[in-house]
Write a structure and sequence with these properties.
The chain has 331 residues and is an alpha/beta fold. It has 9 helices and 15 strands.
Length: 331
């Protein structure tokens, strides 16, 4: 019987996670029950929200329990099926976790179109795509000629937000870390400008890149990045708070911006979690799949090979070492 390697949450981190917070184990491969399928995971998605689930009840989602498999969306292949809707060999999307094999059942597992790349189902048609689509169109309400700023612009969500906004006729300014990422955002993703948050004159450069102020801030970072954005907000600006990566590994809170700006400029600031908007997901998948199929979206994947290296890749992502969507090739 094949073994099932799993990566478990061994202990809850204090600040930035370390390799000692994870444990690699081998167990017997599970067998599906009635109405279930056994899937061999092939690609595993690593996303920033997972950091919050390592804490004990501090996140907006239920924590992963100690000794349990780390959670993740995966793309894999059906090995055994006890559901007549699925056949062995079919490609599927599921919440398969950090492991070789997973048991799932409808509606938590769904078939995917094998004509599109596997990685795209964990990017534009996966959680990053759902998040970018809903946050921009349903909360950002973009209008032609406006200026949108998106932090973590070279990342999985930010890169999609900027491309979708450009297609709507907005001026799009990215924020990323380092000249290589900024060059990618402008030259390959087509943003109007990208500002390196690591330079000492970051706030001044951001102001120069936004001569007409900021109408939409798609916020993925918070902290000093949001502090630089704050004074540039126009009247009736919209702040879409998707993530706060600068805050995830802190042991004490950062001081916040002057919230009188919200009142004086009538700013609409809204946080959102895509799992609250499941009815929007099929629309996002359909529209993003069309764009991917037409070659109208540029994506970049940062792939680590080997399930055993998932913790290293995850920690690297939280440190900003990834370039594009962070994935693990499981086998």
């Amino acid at each position: 019987m094949p073994k099932n390697r799993q990566i478990l949450l061994k202990r809850r981190p204090s600040g930035m996670p370390t390799l000692d917070d994870f444990q690699l184990v081998e167990k017997e491969r599970p067998e599906p029950g009635l109405g279930q399928v056994l899937v061999r995971n092939q690609l595993l998605s690593l996303d920033p929200y997972m950091r919050g689930r390592m804490d004990d009840g501090k996140s907006y989602m239920a924590p992963v329990e100690l000794g349990q498999v780390m959670t993740a969306h995966t793309v894999g292949e059906v090995v055994t099926s006890n559901d007549p809707a699925f056949d062995p060999g079919e490609k599927v999307f599921l919440t398969g976790g950090w492991q070789d094999y997973a048991i799932a059942q409808a509606p938590d597992v769904r078939k995917i179109n094998p004509a599109l790349p596997d990685a795209a189902w964990l990017g534009p048609m996966g959680l990053p795509g759902w998040t970018a689509h809903y946050g921009l169109f349903e909360l950002g309400h973009p209008a032609t000629g406006e200026t949108l700023v998106v932090s973590s612009a070279a990342g999985a969500v930010g890169s999609l937000v900027g491309q979708l906004a450009k297609a709507q006729g907005l001026r799009v300014v990215g924020i990323a870390g380092g000249p290589e990422k900024c060059a990618y955002v402008v030259n390959e993703l087509g943003f109007d400008a990208c500002v390196d948050y690591k330079v000492s004159e970051f706030a001044a450069r951001l102001a120069d890149a936004c001569p007409n102020g900021i109408d939409i801030d798609f916020e993925n970072v918070g902290g000093d990045v949001l502090d630089a954005i704050w004074p540039l907000l126009n009247a009736s600006a919209r702040i879409v708070v998707c993530g706060l990566s600068a805050h995830y590994n802190l042991t004490k809170p950062l001081p916040g911006p002057d919230l009188t700006k919200v009142l004086k400029q009538r700013v609409n600031m809204r946080g959102f979690i895509i799992s609250d908007h499941r009815l929007h997901i099929p629309k996002a998948i359909g529209e993003m799949a069309t764009l991917v199929g037409q070659g109208k979206l540029t994506t970049r994947n940062d792939i680590t090979t080997g399930l055993e290296y998932a913790p290293n890749a995850f920690i690297g992502m939280l440190q900003g070492k990834n370039f594009g969507k962070t994935l693990v090739q499981v086998a």
